Amino acid sequence: MKLLRAWALRLAGMLLQRGRERELADEIEAHLQMHSDDNLRSGMSPEQARREAILKLGGVESVKEAYRERNTVPFVENLLRDIRFSTRQLRKNPGFTWTAILMLALGMCASVAVFAFVDADADPAAALSESRPAGWRIRTCSRFVHDATSRILNTLTGRSSTKS
Fold first, then answer.
1. Angstrom distance (rounded) from CA 85 to CA 92
2. How far apart are CA 130 and CA 144, in angstroms?
3. Where are the alpha helices (DSSP H) in the chain?
4. Is the Cβ–Cβ distance between 115 and 140 less than 8 Å?
């Protein structure tokens, strides 16, 4: 149950990120101010006190990064960041975008067409019958692919194909 609660909090942390960033910045600033005040009371100059406070805290950015990793799901956050970046890049280059979409569509259409021909040529009588044994499609397609591959290899090597 604790694991489920932790994941739910992490996902909520991703959705409520802006408010948490402000809270985190305020919290870090409060800690820095407390450490700076302690250093000022010990006799340091304000610049030296602030610098020592940052060093004692371990660096502001490293603390923020550790907090973000603990309170979000880094994989999902990186995935969303990558999707936003790729969308921005595709909007910048509409010519490339349309070329990529066209190539993907043509590739999918070609795959569907080839499969339709292979499926129809594999066993046309089986497509009409209602009672089919389990796995009939896999067996007929694999037999067809094996025969076609053998014919192509025999043609390339110059051997004559003999059917048994």
1. 11
2. 21
3. 2-15, 17-41, 46-57, 60-71, 74-92, 94-122, 124-128, 136-157
4. no
Q: Which two tokens stand for residue 124?
A: 């046309």
- Which pLDDT tens digit goes with each residue over 46-75? 888 888 888 888 877 887 777 777 767 777
Residues 96, 88: Cα–Cα separation, whole Å: 13
pTM: 0.38
Dihedral sign computed on CA atoms, order 62, 64, 66, 68: negative
Percent of the chain past pLDDT 70, that is, above it, reads: 70
> Distance of CA 54 to CAs 28, 35, 59, 60, 118, Å?
10, 8, 6, 7, 68
Q: How distant is the alpha carbon of residue 124 from its chain centre?
A: 41
Q: In whole angstroms, what is the distance from residue 21 CA to residue 46 CA?
A: 26
Q: Which candidate, 137, 13, 120, places its Cα nearest to that of 77? A: 13
Residue type, 114: V
